[in-house]
Amino acid sequence: MTDPSDAAAAAMQTPFDLWSAWYVNATGMQAEWLRFATSVWLKDARAVARLATCATPIELASAQAALAQEALADWFELQRKVFGEFDPDIAGSALAVA
């Protein structure tokens, strides 16, 4: 038979345990943000080249609209990933609609 005080002591989390869990989550979010920022930077560099090849205002407007749509989709995907870590049911929320 185990001593009830041993079970209570094992169930308690130390401040280090709480900080470690926070640190792991924060590190994951930082890694995701850096991945996203790098991806956006590369896409922006490609976008400049894409816009430079447009010969008419119609082509330019079309390219701008496509780039804006891609950028918005990327931001919604980032939000779904980051907030999905806090709430796994976020996939069924309004963020998933976009």
Radius of gyration: 23 Å
Kindly, what is the distance between the CA atoms of the first and last residues, rounded to a whole number of angstroms? 56 Å
Mean pLDDT: 79
Quantity of strands, as a count: 0
- Give me the strand/helix succession: HHHH
Shape: elongated
Strand content: under 5%
Number of domains: 1
Helix content: over 70%
Biggest sheet record: none
Low-confidence stretches: none
Can you count the helices?
4
Could you say which structural class the secondary elements and strand pairing correspond to?
A: mainly alpha
Please specify the SSE layout and strand pairing:
Elements: H1 4-11, H2 15-52, H3 57-86, H4 94-97
Q: Can you offer a commentary on this structure?
A:
The protein is 82% helix and 0% strand. The protein is mainly alpha-helical and 98 residues long. The protein has one domain (23-97).
